[in-house]
Records
---
Amino acid sequence: LETGCLSIIVLGASGDLAKKKTFPALFNLYRQGFLQESEVHIFGYARTKISDDELRNRIRGYLVNDKTASLEHSESLSKFLQLIKYVSGSYDTDEGFQLLDKEISKHEVSKNSVEGSSRRLFYFALPPSVYPSVSRMIKKCCMNKSDLGGWTRIVVEKPFGKDLESAEHLSSQIGELFDEAQIYRIDHYLGKELVQNLLVLRFANRFFLPLWNRDNIDNVQIVFREDFGTEGRGGYFDEYGIIRDIIQNHLLQVLCLVAMEKPVSLKPEHIRDEKVKVLQSVLPIKDEEVVLGQYEGYRDDPTVPDNSNTPTFATVILRIHNERWEGVPFILKAGKALGSRKAEIRVQFKDVPGDIFKCKKQGRNEFVIRLQPSEAMYMKLTVKQPGLEMRTAQSELDLSYRQRYQGVTIPEAYERLILDTIRGDQQHFVRRDELKAAWEIFTPLLHRIDNGKMKPNSYQPGSRGPAEADELLSKAGYVQTHGY
Ligand code: BG6
């Protein structure tokens, strides 16, 4: 890591994202020695007028969990909280940001920072509507003052707009103020352990190299399920829906890593170049390859309109028009209020030609990467059932992280991504052209839904989602296998 004074400014410090994700991630980095007291200071900024201690008390409860409950950690917790200061101000006037700048500069002087080598990281835990004004204010009042060294970076969260046009507008507004190298667009799925493992799996294993194509793979599913509804976020969610909330970003990013060609090197630009090519090769989505759902009871939320058409579930098939993937459906599926919480990638292989065992009914080879919960990957394969008879059965080659890496703590996605931001590594962040290509894929479909031309089917909370989704899956060629 570079040295020098580091100021981390959490904008929207009293909001949900900051409390649940940003501050806990910062605390974990601090506990592991990545944020040094001698260098770092954390500032919370928001409109609410509260004291430093009030902010500390508000976030304290979110920092203590099973991992951090020990005495040793409670000491580091108090020390960590002392690093946090609070500044209140509005998001669109100079006053607050001038005050913030003064506080940051005071800290930089107190840490004897060499002039110019100070680093300023602004984390936007804010509603996107204020991104443009906050970016303007930072540019005007809070930039690292010298060009002798150091930097100013901003971290922005989705939703980056609502469709292609609004996203491009937002990108241009921010792009006029900051260089691409200063903008870190977070998609927290890119910080998940098994998502980060995808490139290694694909390009460091001889097994997969010859198999990973249309000749051998029948279909790919990328699935996200949650076993709870929109609970308390109905207002936000209803405006966006499951496609904007999960599929257009998290699942599409995973798709890129599953489908992309081998990058020239591991340089962030090389990797992102390949991801963009995948996105640009996706064909327009066909209505008949989409199933939408809305769970019963969703509209009972007082923040959701009675006639809401917003999908809380969607299955969408994407088709990649290139030499490797022509004809292979990529089935993206996401839903709230389903029977279980799970995110996984299922790569299903074609049947064995000239099968002499008649084992087709038992199912196909499938490679499953479970992102959460309990990270794992397993290969379903056909083996001889132990015993005197020559019978075949489905079994698994199984790598469960909990067993294989006992005692290893898997870092939280946000923790990793914030550390990447401090290190200046943009590999796991979304580049502007990538974002644009992602919106290009989904905007026509989203507009059809917004205009009421496509309606969600209703489904029972706690179920698998609408039955139509399973029908679509079988039509696309997916064969339900037994076992796991
Ligand atoms: C967020 C969505 O981006 O991801 C939420 O806005 C969703 O609706 C969450 O619950 C899921 O993240 P994870 O890491 O729990 O799978």
---
Amino acid sequence: MQRSNRSGEILVIGEIREGTLHSATVELTAKARELADRLGTKVTTLLMYDRVDMNVEDLAWWGADVVLCVVGEPFRYFNQEVYTNVISYLIKGRNPQIVLAPATTSGRTYMPAVAAKVHTGLTADCTGLDIDADTGLLLQTRPAIGGNIMATIQTPNHLPQMATVRPRTFPVPKPNRGRKARVEHPDLPGEVFTSSIEVLGKEHQEGMDVNIQDLDVVVSGGKGLKKAENFNLLRELASLLGGGVGASRAAVDNKWISYPHQVGLSGKVVSPKVYFAVGISGSVQHLAGMQTADFVVAINKDPEAPIFRVADIALCGDLFDIVPRIIEKIKEQ
Ligand code: FAD
């Protein structure tokens, strides 16, 4: 097994938003536990926050051996530079074998910068992780070529091996409440907290309050919706199902709905239990953002629409006829 002079630990970068732990932290910690057991190594989960509404030691229940806490005012708002500095400093000092971070908006922002700082590579947006039984190296699977193939990537010449992983890729196992972790507060030099970015505050933008990546049901609309007001139909359906509204790039480009709702290659990647594609043709770029959904319902008037190839339920017809009927049926129940 290739281990070099590294500690061999798996370092998971956790995410806390306004005091609340992002579920991806638990998913990644549990996956890291599974990988670490095969490598015979430990799992360290790093948390950076100004406040937190949980007992951080509880991450042991999902497999953390060490919970590394860096606490302070600089984490009140997300600051890419501070995240990058802290994570890079800790990687250089701890020499982990593997570093995993969630492919959330912030994870996608700081991890490339961390990779550059610690002179290693990064496999972004993974949907599968495994260990090569011969080399002990991480096998990182992700969609490639616009989502047309799944590529499994090994980076034997670049350590630590680093990957970002799409939220909701891995199931969360039942917590083992008897498990304990050591909580550590590492000493860090003051300069890691210095930044050329000063965050003055946060402004609300339509669509930012709900992150469609975290939802079980996403109802997405495309160019077939024809105008902004027609998205109200999808909002009604989504709200009845306890979900949120997504969109194709064509709908976003037409300014019918804001960018945080865009699903696809240049938007968000979602993995809900149910994904509705309404008036969306199913371009490879759109599929790249939703094809890991458990169940796809497609509504399109074109029987040849490519979206039907990935649909579990294909409803061929006019969306302005079909969607109100679905809403009506749900309301009857
Ligand atoms: P269209 O392809 O125009 O499809 C509209 C569909 O609506 C048609 O299938 C039509 O049959 C159906 N329809 C029309 N009226 C009705 C009706 N009354 N009832 C039922 N069905 C109806 N796209 C994304 O979505 N996300 C991305 O992140 C993304 N990133 C991209 C990145 C790059 C680099 C590039 C080059 C492109 C990207 N695209 C992305 C754009 C992508 O190629 C498509 O142009 C886009 O997905 C098309 O959106 P659409 O399906 O809504 O529109």
